[in-house]
Design brief:
Blueprint lengths: L8 H7 L21 H24 L12 H20 L7 H17 L5 H14 L6 H4 L14 H9 L7 H39 L8 H14 L2 H22 L12 E2 L16 E2 L3 H7 L4 H24 L10 H19 L1 H12 L14 H21 L4 H24 L12 H24 L11 H14 L4 H30 L11 H13 L6 H23 L7 H6 L3 H57 L10
Antiparallel strand pairs: 1-2
Length: 666
């Protein structure tokens, strides 16, 4: 067992081996249990395999982007296969079948590991560390503009073979000099990443009890994994499930064949309708890039999220598009970026973080009293750690982040502001996923560095801070595969399956260590074979940060008052939306919809969200709760059919060493 708790040890042993069908998850009707060693072993064994699969698909062939949506489909596919095998084991050897808690432990650990090898974390960091020395030449003058301001030990330097091999490929990672060249920068950034994850995990521990036990938030994203873990046998007996599974699976099968053989017919799903074909004159050409996609899995996921969120997402998407049309009609051309939609969204994210803190204020005050040893403090007996220990962990991790930022050349006050904004983003993302479960969230190119640059300008920041911002680009480019919501969902899964939170946290720590090691190996291994130069992703996004740094230092910019004002307006507007929702139960417009509607993801998701919202609204209105429950298997089938067939295409592409059809398209 992965932990000891004398009071529950006997009950843990008695329930650990219960088969899926014999465990009810509707209440506290079976005793708390520990995370089993075999569940952790299965997850750890799968981590390197799944990491390599994700890297090959997302980074090398750019043909599947599991980590760009909230529910990682490569993890869901693996859980589904494990569930099928577990059903067979349950029939043959019931005492050996995995329990729901073990299934969800595997899911949680694989999801956390997936955040490290994701499209928005180490897939960007590894090429980025090698790029500046590799790409520097007399024409761009990067040796003066960039490299003089970057510590040599923070990036890959000196070893030309290591740089060239990563960029071009056809090389071996497993040479001593290559491994030694990577040892120094990876040691620094591994410590940084562990401190970052430790700070995020600490924040989750402050909110965990209030969100999962007091507010009892629904955590829509884990509902399908929970159904796989607790009732897969019932799901497989549903005709509606198989009908939807066949529909979405057939679409992907047909389109996959069409991708390999264009003469074969296809079913239009991605870019089913393009506005640019019809909206060619002002002011309507301002929304010419709008598109309609028909992703079945998004329609399925929409059925699990609250109807008001789905409504808010597509409503505010149209709201932002209306701003573009209005700006074009008025003829505003001398203010680049107007109406600053992404800056508005950044303000919305900050507001969501502040609202999450406000809604938990009484619990957080009690936590503070507990930390200070004052009467009336929160009870931490059921927590993985005492609140005082959590605070010490958070302070230590936050201090490491500040110290490492200053080692990179940044100022203390800049690092404090930077990480406070980042943590507010993190709280916002964890809360929106816990309460509402949007299918995706990203906020591209609106990290704390951009907000501070807009507010202060390049001269006030100075080269040291700009250099640190550049080196932090890899975890601020977008926020799709964020660690915070996945770890919080793990705590919710522990509550639903009656696993001790202390034991689940130990499994999370194992997932962090093994997941980080697996991601580093998979990315380096794949890139030294294939290279990142000339990839479809454009040098694996490694050039974005360095080009921005060169531009900021070569052409200093003043503070951008209009962009900063838009962020403030977005913050205020989202706070007003949140206040109205708290005051009026009938208020439909949710601040999460406002914050997420400008994103790259929402441009592709808005219409499937509309269809899912429409289906859920009609079924709930005219069929009631009974019809809603009866329809659930159909919408689960839409998700799993696409995830299974889409994952099989990804696996085929990995083994065939080629690009294949991607159902979640670019």
């Amino acid at each position: 067992m992965a932990g000891k708790h004398p009071k529950d040890e006997a009950s843990a042993r008695s329930s650990a081996g219960k088969p899926v069908s014999s465990v009810s998850l509707t209440g506290d009707d079976f005793p708390a249990q520990f995370v089993s060693v075999r569940a952790m072993a299965i997850a750890c064994a799968l981590m390197p395999v799944l990491a390599l699969w994700v890297v090959q698909s997302e980074l090398i062939w750019y043909s599947g982007h599991s980590t760009a949506i909230s529910l990682f489909f490569h993890v869901t596919f693996a859980l589904f296969l494990i569930g099928l095998v577990n059903l067979y084991v349950e029939k043959k050897w019931p005492e050996r079948a995995l329990s729901p808690g073990e299934m969800m432990t595997i899911y949680m650990m694989l999801s956390i590991a997936g955040t490290f090898c994701s499209h928005d974390l180490l897939q960007v960091m590894i090429p980025m560390l090698a790029y500046p020395n590799y790409a520097a030449n007399p024409m761009n003058n990067w040796e003066v503009v960039i490299l003089e301001h970057i510590p040599e030990w923070a990036v890959l330097s000196e070893n030309k073979d290591a740089m060239n091999g990563l960029a071009v490929g056809n090389a071996s990672l497993y040479r001593p000099d290559i491994l030694l060249a990577w040892a120094r920068p990876l040691a620094f950034w591994s410590v940084f990443l562990i401190a970052l994850v430790g700070a995020l995990l600490s924040l989750n521990l402050f909110f965990r009890k209030h969100w999962t036990e007091k507010e009892k938030l629904s955590f829509p994203i884990i509902q399908i994994p929970m159904m796989i873990s607790t009732g897969l046998d019932r799901l497989l007996k549903s005709r509606l499930f198989w009908l939807a599974f066949v529909i979405s699976g057939t679409i992907d099968l047909v389109n996959g064949i069409h991708f390999l053989n264009p003469n074969f017919p296809h079913i239009p799903i991605v870019e089913a309708f393009l506005f640019q074909d019809y909206f060619v004159e002002r002011p309507w050409n301002a929304i010419a890039m709008t598109r309609i996609d028909l992703y079945p899995f998004v329609i399925g996921l929409s059925f699990f999220i609250p109807a008001d969120l789905a409504f808010s997402c597509w409503f505010f998407f149209i709201f932002y598009r209306a701003q573009l049309v209005l700006a074009s009609a008025i003829g505003i051309h001398d203010l680049p970026g107007f109406p600053f939609m992404h800056e508005q969204a950044a303000g919305g994210y900050i507001a969501l973080g502040l609202l999450a803190i406000y809604l938990s204020r009484q619990h957080l005050i009690a936590v503070g009293r507990s930390i200070l040893g004052l009467p009336g403090g929160a009870d931490s007996s059921g927590e993985p750690m005492s609140y005082r220990a959590v605070f010490i962990l958070f302070a230590a991790c936050f201090g490491v982040l500040l110290a490492q930022g200053m080692l990179l050349g940044a100022s203390l006050w800049v690092m404090i502001v930077f990480f406070v904004i980042f943590l507010l983003y993190s709280i916002a993302i964890a809360r929106m996923r816990a309460e509402l479960g949007p299918p995706a969230h990203d906020l591209h190119a609106m990290g704390p560095d951009v907000l501070m640059h807009n507010a202060l300008g390049t001269r006030a920041l100075g080269t040291g801070n700009i250099a640190a911002f550049t080196l932090f680009f890899w975890f601020n480019r977008a926020y799709r595969a964020h660690f915070s919501p996945h770890s919080m969902e793990g705590f919710k899964a522990a509550q639903l399956t009656r696993i001790l939170s202390r034991s689940m946290m130990k499994a999370m720590v194992v997932a962090i260590i093994v997941g980080l090691a697996s991601a580093l190996w998979a990315i380096l291994h794949a890139l030294y074979i294939h290279g990142y130069g000339g990839r479809i992703a454009g040098d694996a996004f490694s050039a974005e940060a360095w080009n921005k740094m060169a531009a900021w230092l070569t052409f200093p910019q003043r503070p951008q008052l209009a962009a900063t004002s838009a962020t403030g307006i977005g913050l205020l507007f989202a706070l007003i939306l949140g206040a109205l929702r708290m005051k009026f139960t009938w208020w439909l417009w949710h601040p999460v919809g406002y914050a997420t509607a400008t994103s790259w993801s929402m441009e592709r998701l808005w219409f499937p969200l509309f269809l899912g919202w429409l289906a859920k609204s009609l079924i709930s209105r005219y069929g009631g709760a009974k019809m809603y429950r009866a329809a659930l298997p159909f919408f689960v089938g839409l998700v799993l059919g696409e995830f299974v067939v889409g994952s099989l295409w990804m696996i085929y592409g990995t083994f065939a060493n080629m690009r294949v059809y991607q159902f979640w398209g670019w």
